[in-house]
Amino acid sequence: MTEAPTPSRVGYQVMVEPHRRALERLVLELDFFVRDVGNLNLFSVSSRVKQYERAAAKSALLGIPIEALDDLAGLRVVVGTLAEVPIIMRFLTRQEISKDLKIVKSKQIDHGSGYRATHVVVEKPSEYRASVFPGRVEVQIHTIFQHAFNFLSRNWSYKQPWQVSPKWSADFAELSRLLTSIDHAAHSLHLGQTEFQETTDESALTPHSYQAIVKSEFAEDIPAEDAVDACRLYVDLGYRTNGHLRRHFSDPRIADLYAVIESKAAISESSAIIVKMGRSGFWSFFGVKIGTPALDRFLEALLMDAPQAS
């Protein structure tokens, strides 16, 4: 079997350009996401396109063509705790649902050396505004404690020209296990802090406080991905604090409208479908449009769907 030729440095720059453009678009979209998702404990965001020499060396080591490498373009996102990893994951899965990208690979890494992270390889579709070729990006999501170990590893052992002893490697892996315990403790503390934050109206609305407020107001359990989507919607509309959301949930106009729809559910298929959204879904979808002509026309048509009493 003949090995694929390694592209020249100039050829590599041409080949990697769609991945560079996909990376730059992803960084911009992440910035919008972070602005809308609330008080996310984001430590750092860094990106890079793999240098030609490193790409050629990895291609030779793995025995695959350079263009088959997943990490020619890379994005690293470091968050505070494990509680925030699903929030960043929702940034990617939401885009996949919207067909703005495709998730090619997704895995949790817990290596014997101590390296831990979430790795997701995404592909941005081709489009005339960016490139006629699709672009691929490896997204690494770390907590700050995973990042601490990985930072030390890069300086002390990973891809360094010196050799370390087996005992040193075992002790360093033990450091990772200790940091993992701290990571889980920080996760529990973070969730506990959210309970205190949820009670404060002045605190910034976050996916976690959204879940807590919906639970207290409507007795509904909201999945993390739905909480992220709802939080982004509300923050974008100006509901930036827990107090804003509470006042919205207590709006009597929305409550009265929900009661009318609920009363028609037994005789109107459309009303029954809306009621299945739950109160939080109704407040998010219809409540933010309360008083608008478009909503009034929709509801007029909806209520006409119900059979009239003879």
Could you walk me through the main structural features you see in this protein, from its secondary elements to its overall organization?
The protein is α+β, with helices and mostly antiparallel strands. It folds into two domains: 9-185, Beta Polymerase, domain 2; 207-304, no CATH class. It contains twelve helices and five strands. The chain has a five-stranded mixed β-sheet, with helices on both faces. Helix 3 crosses helix 7 (224-237) and helix 6 crosses helix 7. The longest helix is centred in the middle third of the chain and has 33 residues, at 166-198. The N and C termini lie far apart (81 Å). The relative contact order is 0.10.
Q: Keywords for this structure?
A:
single chain; 310 residues; alpha+beta; 2 domains; five-stranded mixed sheet; globular
